[in-house]
Write a structure and sequence with these properties.
Layout (H helix, E strand, L loop, with lengths): L2 H7 L17 E2 L5 H12 L4 E11 L4 E12 L2 E8 L3 E9 L2 E6 L4 E4 L2 H9 L5 H7 L9 E8 L6 E11 L2 E8 L2 E3 L2 E3 L2 E5 L3 E11 L1
Antiparallel strand pairs: 1-8, 2-3, 2-14, 3-4, 4-5, 5-6, 6-7, 8-9, 9-10, 10-13, 11-12, 13-14
Length: 213
């Protein structure tokens, strides 16, 4: 087991996050009204500060291992603070990032520092995860480097919306494929309740129980 998983996940719940049972129809970028997608993207841009709570599953595909833990993620332009926890053991670790750098603090108060969280995970724990993008991706925000975008259409809503549902994106030297599903309206903004990101060695699945902003 890789070091970060040892640090966080030795005693976490052996839970597999279930997928949404309803299969919506996905439409390619060329098949949608671009205005409907831009309307939703403009709504998402208003979310500069937010908080999510939920369950995170990490799949180490090369070792055929999977683990689950709870996550409390607070995000603002000046601070990212993520708490990883277990319902019986409490806080397992905290990951903080500010413009000055990033630090991971384990349950023994041992600290690991780097210029940003993505570098910290790569250099200390050999995890090539696109952390710098994830805070944008989990909201459903489009990125300039996305490929093969598909959308869920809400034509009956006023105004009509096209919600980003799956895509591919290059990051950390590999191609990641993402899926967003189970969108719900939170303070009149449609946000995904499930997010999945997969590359050759890793799969990340997030099920959100609560959004706040």
């Amino acid at each position: 087991m890789r070091p970060l998983l040892t640090l966080l996940l030795l005693a976490v719940l052996p839970v597999t996050l279930s997928a949404c049972t309803t299969t919506p129809q996905h439409h390619s970028l060329s098949a949608i009204d671009r205005t409907a997608a831009l309307t939703h993207q403009q709504q998402l841009q208003s979310m500069s500060s937010w908080r999510l709570q939920g369950q995170l599953a990490l799949f180490d595909l090369s070792a055929d291992k999977r683990h689950s833990l709870y996550i409390d993620w607070q995000h603002s332009p000046a601070l990212i603070n993520i708490r990883f926890s277990h319902p019986l053991q409490g806080t397992l670790a905290r990951l903080e990032q500010t413009p000055a750098g990033a630090v991971l603090i384990d349950d023994n108060d041992k600290r690991f520092y780097a210029s940003d969280a993505e570098t910290l995970l790569r250099d200390y724990f050999n995890l090539a995860l696109p952390f710098n993008l994830v805070s944008e991706l989990i909201l459903g925000r489009e990125q300039a480097t996305m490929q093969q975008q598909h959308y869920i259409l809400l034509n009956q809503q006023q105004p009509p919306l096209a919600l980003l549902s799956r895509y591919a994106i290059p990051a950390t030297g590999q191609l990641w494929k993402a899926q967003l599903s189970n969108y719900k309206s939170i303070q009149n903004i449609m946000l995904p309740q499930q997010f999945e990101l997969t590359a050759n060695e890793w799969r990340i699945k997030l099920r959100v129980s609560q959004w706040q902003f």
